[in-house]
Amino acid sequence: MGLECEPAKYGKSTMLSLTTTGRPFRAVFFTSLFAATLAFGASRAEASTPAETFVANNVQRGLVILNNHGASETQKNAQFRDFLTSLTDIRRIALFTLGPARRTATPTDINAFVDAFHDFAVAVYQSRLSSYSGQTLKVTGSNERAPGDYIVSTMMLEPGGQKSGDQPLQVDFRVEDENGKFVVIDVSVAGIWLAIEERDQFTAFLDQNNESVPALVSHLRQLTQQVRNGGSPSSDQGQSG
User: Mean pLDDT, to the nearest integer, of 4-12?
Assistant: First the structure.
């Protein structure tokens, strides 16, 4: 199964924005919130199917990396980067978010975009390493949409229990079996399927910039540097020309 899905089946919502050419550009995409969710521990006892076990076990692996107090921050960053890269199909996700532009872009431009997407994703999830504060993800079930294509549902639970009236945050992972190996290809946080959301935003950016993939690559590079400098993709920096 490919990453293409009916958008009507996926939630949409306003995300953090970065102003570009006077219009909002939502820059917090798949990997940023995916990384944040993987920074939390998972309840493996709830997992009962192979897809559920895959999600629970790998979330636990991320927690072990973050809790390794014998490693330096540089070591933990590198370990977490390798961990997430092995867990996802970054090139496939990047090409999906590029949308229709990938059909006409040159191989050079496509490769440059994939590299920029990967670098930005890495910068964002490394900036999220401090997000962990004892939360856990409880696997609540899964649904096989098609052979080898699963949605694994989890709930994010606070360490001291939910406050009165608060509902646990729902986080769903889309997992596919690629030749006998599970990979995560999208994540939904509170109903927002992030790869689909970002495909729409990248397409809007390209429409504003004469379908220029190099312009999008340059913009992602600016965002990457902004995050590495301690900024947030929700600021007004990084406007396109």
Answer: 33
